[in-house]
Design a protein that fits this description.
single chain, 222 residues, mainly alpha, Arc Repressor Mutant, subunit A, 3-stranded antiparallel β-sheet, two-stranded antiparallel ribbon, 9 helices, 5 strands
Length: 222
């Protein structure tokens, strides 16, 4: 990679930007508030975090310096909007983005888990398509973006992890895996709540913009 390893906050911010770009493009790019909510949402995330705006903003600025994110201001955007640039910087397609995004948001996973969970980001037609994408990411030049982890005792499938945060500690991964199993699957209701939150944020921005335009119109007659 042409940049140093990302820290855990930068990984979460970049993963959230990728997810929202692919899953809800109508609400992308994101305001800072929407990006904070995306990082902290309860569904499709492991581990759960509670970042404040300053933490997320600092991580986004760091990603921007590495050409992995961008901030758009002015014009039609009433507030700064955040987006990712990883697809351009690393020359990634939507398939690769979907896999990386899931690994960044939920940690190491099997091909089967990735196929199921990444469907909302990209429609993989078969498990072989996921496995082929993983191989491409493992063989990515100039450096691999994904690594295959050693098979865990009692597990039939191997798992894969991203390398954007540097080398992966197998011990830490196994501990995190046990924690995720105890937490269990996230409910469909949480996913619906997340989508509604994004819709409310979009409506709020639209109403504020409409109010600003109305004030400007009224001032013309004063």
């Amino acid at each position: 990679m042409s940049f140093s390893p990302l820290n855990e906050v930068e990984v979460r911010v970049l993963g959230a930007l990728i997810e929202k770009d692919l899953s809800t493009p109508e609400y992308y790019p994101l305001s800072l508030n929407a990006l904070v909510n995306a990082c902290n949402q309860k569904s499709n995330r492991h581990p759960a975090v509670s970042y404040d705006e300053a933490t997320v903003s600092q991580a986004a600025d760091s990603l921007r310096e590495r050409r992995l994110a961008l901030v758009t201001t002015g014009g039609e955007h009433r507030v700064p909007k955040y987006g990712h640039r990883i697809s351009e910087t690393l020359n990634l397609g939507n398939r690769e983005l979907a896999i990386l995004g899931e690994l960044m948001l939920r940690g190491p996973q099997t091909p089967g888990e990735l196929k199921s969970r990444a469907q909302r980001l990209h429609a993989f037609d078969a498990l072989e398509s996921v496995e082929s994408c993983l191989r491409r990411l493992i063989e990515w030049q100039p450096e691999p973006l994904v690594v295959q982890l050693p098979r865990q005792a009692g597990m039939r499938e191997v798992r894969y992890a991203h390398l954007l945060g540097g080398e992966v500690s197998v011990t830490e991964v196994e501990a995190a895996s046990g924690s995720e199993a105890r937490l269990g699957a996230r409910s469909e209701m949480e996913e619906r709540i997340t989508r509604l939150e994004a819709e409310v944020e979009s409506l709020r921005s639209g109403l504020e913009d409409l109010s600003r335009r109305l004030e400007s119109f009224v001032r013309q007659f004063q």
